[in-house]
Amino acid sequence: MITSKCIQLVSLSLLLLSQSFATERPNILFIIADDASFEHFGVNGCTWVNTPNIDKLAEDGINFTAAYTPNPKCGPSRSVLITGQNPWQLGAAINHNAILDKKFKTYAEALGEHGYNTGYTGKGWRPGDAQGRKLLGKVYNKHKSPKRLTERISATDYTKNFEQFLNDTDSSKPFAFWLGCNEPHRAYEFKSGVKHGKTLASIPEVPKYWPDTEEVRHDMLDYALEVEHFDGHVGRCISALEEKGLLENTLIIVTSDNGMPFPRVKGHPYHNAAHMPFFAMWKNGIKNPGRTSSHLVSFIDIAPTFMEMAGISQKESGILPGPGRSLLEIFQGSQDMAAIPERETVLMGRERNDVGRPLDLGYPVRAIRKGKLFYIHNFKPTRWPSSNPSTGFKDTDPSPTLSAVVEAGENSSYWKLSLAKRKADELYDVIADPDCITDLSEKPEYAEQMKSLKNELFIKLTQQEDLRMGPNGDWYDSQNNPYANEDEQHFYEKVHAGSNIKNRSKNHARLDLEDGL
Fold first, then answer.
1. Is residue 357 located within the same domain as residue 321?
2. pLDDT of 503 over the 60 cut
């Protein structure tokens, strides 16, 4: 006969076991900027953006110097992060402002089902239609900042919302929290950088694909101010964890969804758009902290990393099998750890991002990095990469820098590099030429290497059932796969029918150009 005392002892034992397991499983704080580039952090060599908190985090953990998003645009990049699938495996969610199919479970949903407290603040998964799901857990956006550096910076106090989450949730359970900073997404307060003490001369060099003008330098400094705002929240979150005694067993990852919101970067799978800042600190779990890792890693690696940390198998998680690989092997390695054969390549691509082409067409691209070479295949080189001129190049964020590029004219190198139509094949040496200025695709000495890279890329895409590898590739930007936001549908046609559409960037377009497709 089971007595009440036995039941109490069993219950106590189970409780102690549960608490022990909870303390062993690490917490996860995933901090993501919106549109910050790899090269604009002090630890990565930048002198005109001040990021002391992130620099310190990297010194106490690992700085991943070869991390990539497979799709450098907000919505699809975040879809990859939360599901562990490459963009072309996500159906409609390869596109910006798409519908995320319910069959793609997120890492946060899986962790929540296995005893984790989950939540987020700021920008989570968007823009798009989540079909009513809480993809990252409960939202915490109540707390606002009484003072902001500019009115363009979000009023959301990300750190206080994170602290509220910690106070509200069961402390006997581990947590997984997504802190999605809205900065440095546009729009910026023009000249806010100089207003807060920055100088135009502090920028040592403007990228060769933009004119070196005062307006462009101001634009870069305004962006820098918002990156620094992001860095401040990283520091305050670390302090909050330390005060609660949670820092030792919390993995903190700091990254961004895509590169800076400037021409030829955000949304366009060149190296500077897809090459992400990526820092990890976990005092209980990262061996030999203070090192860098040059292993090629991808956002598809995040979900399997979190599952392995939590002790959840792929089958138990319910997350669809993906091509990613857990980062724990690097966390537990050393400065001189050997090359990992499975990390010899990373794949990237895009389909339809923002509006502005006839029939809502996208700009399909796939790319591969292997070693120092970066190969890009443009499937539809007759289309405009940044959307059509007559709709204002809407596939590049409106900005003083975009205006400067347009005003330089179509015969300028800035126009040709940032806005002009492209060849089907491009090849770059991203070690010698990270800005991807010198195209090697037509140099005879690179012919065999480019052929080999293209073949390897297409084989891997075929294995991952990319529709672009078969006869149905145009489905990605067909009318059967529309923008989730109806206001964005048929934008090009509405403009040419004379509609007064909100946010049409007339000042960024040369309306006398022939559109083509």
1. no
2. no
Do 255 and 296 lie in one domain? The reply is yes
d(CA 101, CA 66): 30
User: Is residue 150 exposed (0-12), middle (13-18) or buried (19+ Cβ within 10 Å)?
Assistant: middle
List residues bridging with 177 in a β-sheet: 29, 119
Top-confidence residue, 500 or 294? 294
Q: What sign results for the dihedral spanned by CA atoms 428, 429, 432, 434?
A: positive
At 279, phi and psi to the nearest 5? -125, 140
> Domain boundary at 335, 357, 373, which?
335
Q: Identify any residues that bridge with 276 across adjacent strands, giving them in sequence order.
A: 67
From CA 299, how far away is CA 125, in angstroms rounded? 14
Whole-number mean pLDDT of the chain?
A: 92
SS3 178: strand
Q: Which tokens hold the place of 351?
A: 């389909």
* CB of 394 closer than 8 Å to CB of 483: no
82-105 pLDDT per residue, tens: 999 999 999 999 999 999 999 999
pLDDT, tens only, 416-452: 999 999 999 999 999 999 999 999 999 999 999 999 9
Alpha-carbon span 260 to 39, nearest angstrom = 10
Spatial contact of 313 and 290, defined as CB atoms under 8 Å apart = no
Cis geometry, peptide bond prior to residue 201 (ω within 30 degrees of 0): no
- The answer to whether 118 and 504 have CB atoms below 8 angstroms apart is no
Instruction: Output the pTM of the full model.
Output: 0.93
Domain count, the chain: 2
Do 134 and 85 fall into the same domain? yes
**Beta partners for residue 348, in sequence order:** 367
3-state secondary structure 138-173: EECCCCECCCCCCCCCCCECHHHHHHHHHHHCCCCC
In a domain, 7, yes or no: no
Q: What is the predicted pLDDT for the residue at 24?
A: 82
Tens of pLDDT along 461-485? 999 999 999 999 999 999 999 999 9
CATH of the domain at 65: 3.40.720.10
d(CA 282, CA 57): 10
Range of the domain at 39: 24-335
Per cent of the chain over pLDDT 70 is 92
pLDDT given at position 248: 97
Q: Looking at residue 334, what is its pLDDT? A: 85
Give dist(CA 180, CA 183) in Å, integer: 9
